[in-house]
Amino acid sequence: MLTVTMNPALDHTLTVAEPLRKGEVVRTDDAKFDAGGKGINVSQYLTALGVDAPATGFLGGPFGQMIGGTLDEEGVARDFVEIGGRTRLNTTVLSPDGEYKINHDGPVVEEGDVDALVERVRDREPERLVVAGSLPRGIGADAVDRLAGAGPWDTAVDMGGSFLGRFDGSYLVCKPNRAELAEATGRAVETIEDAASAAAELRERGYRYVLASLGPDGALLVSESGAVRAPALPVDVVDTVGAGDALLSGFLAGLARGDSTADALRTAVVVAARVVSVSGTSVPSFEDVFERRERVEIRSV
Ligand SMILES: Nc1ncnc2c1ncn2[C@@H]1O[C@H](COP(=O)(O)OP(=O)(O)OP(=O)(O)O)[C@@H](O)[C@H]1O
Ligand SMILES: O=P(O)(O)OC[C@@]1(O)O[C@H](CO)[C@@H](O)[C@@H]1O
C-alpha cells in the first residue's frame, strides 16, 4: 500500500488550561509536533498495524524536513517529491471549552511536480494507493484521477466533499464524514438514514465502498450488498484529529489481511477509538485491535 499526501502538514497541538479569551495571552508548556496530513497519518497508522505503507507526496522547507525526520524516527518508509514551496504548519488548540483547529492552505505546487509524483508512484508499483487530504494550491482534482489511472492499482480517496463527486475514474473506497457527504451529494445529512441514502448515491458515482465516518455515531459502510453501521466504542476522547484517517486505516488494514468487509469495518472502529484517545495525530498502541474488534456490533441500516 502506498499513500499520497499532496498537502502534508506539521501538526502543532497545544493544550491550554483555560478557555481562550480575546486580547489575552494564554501560556502553556504542553505542546507537541506530529507529522501530519491525511495520507501520512494513514501510513503511520498502517505501519503500526503491521501493514507496509510507505508515504509519498510533496514536501518542502523546514516543516517538510521535520516531517521527514519524524517519519524516519517512527520507521515509516517515505519517498516524497521535494518542492520549492514550504510545507505548512497546522495548529490545534485543546482548551477546556473544546477543540480549535486552524489549517493553512499550504504551498503552491507546479504541474511539473505532479508529473514527478506520478512517476514516483509508477516506479513503486503499489498494489493499492491511498490519496488523502486537501490539494495544495495549483493542483486540481484531475491530478487524483491521473494518480489513480497511472497503473493497475486500486485507489482509496479521502478528500473534501466537493471533490468526491467529481472524479472520472472508479475508486475502491472513499471516506466522507457527514459534512462531506452533504457537500458531495447536495443532500441534507442529519440522521443515520440520511447518511446511508447520501452514501448510496455517492457510491453510484464510481466507488466500490463508501465508508462514512459519523463521529460519536460510529461509521457506516455502503457496498453492493447494502448499508451496515457500526456504533462507536465508548472511550474518553482527548481530540478527534486524525480520527477519520484512523477509521480508513483500520478498514484498509482489514482488507489487506483478507478479512470480510464487516470485520474490516469493526477493525476500523477499534482503531479510530484508540486514536481519539490520544492527542494530535500521534500513534497510540494498537495492541489487540484485531482481537478487540469482536466488541463492535454491526447493525443493518
Ligand atoms: N466521540 C467519539 N467517541 C468514540 N469514537 C469516536 C468519537 N468521535 C469519532 N470517533 C470515531 O472516529 C471515527 C472518525 O471520526 P469522525 O467522523 O469525527 O471523522 P472525520 O470527521 O473524518 O475526522 P477528521 O477529519 O478529523 O480525521 C468515527 O467513525 C468513530 O468511529
Ligand atoms: O487540510 P487537510 O489536508 O484537509 O487536513 C489536514 C489535517 O487536518 O488532516 C489531518 C487529520 O485528519 C491532520 O494531520 C492535518 O492537520
Strand content: 15-25%
User: What is the second-level CATH architecture?
Assistant: 3-Layer(aba) Sandwich
Please, how many helices?
A: 10
CATH class: Alpha Beta
CATH topology: UDP-N-acetylmuramoyl-L-alanine:D-glutamate ligase
Structural class: alpha/beta
Low-confidence blocks of residues: none
Number of strands: 14
Shape: globular
Domain count: the total is 1
CATH-defined superfamily: Ribokinase
Protein name: 1-phosphofructokinase
Enzyme class: transferase
InterPro entries: Carboh/pur_kinase_PfkB_CS (IPR002173), PfkB_dom (IPR011611), pfkB_Halo (IPR054902), Ribokinase-like (IPR029056), Tagatose/fructose_Pkinase (IPR017583)
GO molecular function: 1-phosphofructokinase activity; ATP binding
Structure description:
This is 1-phosphofructokinase. With 301 residues, the chain is an alpha/beta fold. It has one domain: UDP-N-acetylmuramoyl-L-alanine:D-glutamate ligase, CATH 3.40.1190.20. Helix content is 35%, strand content 23%. The protein is built from ten helices and 14 strands. The strands form two sheets. Strands 5-4-1-8-9-10-11-12-13-14 form a ten-stranded mixed β-sheet, with helices on both faces. α2 links the parallel β4 and β5. It is globular and about 50 Å long. The protein starts with a strand and ends with a strand. The mean pLDDT is 96. Bound molecules: adenosine-5'-triphosphate and 1-O-phosphono-beta-D-fructofuranose.
Q: What can be said about this structure in brief?
A:
Keywords: ATP-binding, Kinase, Nucleotide-binding, Transferase. The chain is α/β, with parallel strands linked by helices. It has helices at 38-48, 61-74, 111-124, 142-149, 161-164, 178-185, 192-203, 243-256, 261-276, 289-292; strands spanning 2-5, 9-15, 31-36, 55-59, 81-82, 88-95, 98-102, 128-132, 154-158, 171-174, 207-213, 219-223, 226-230, 299-300.
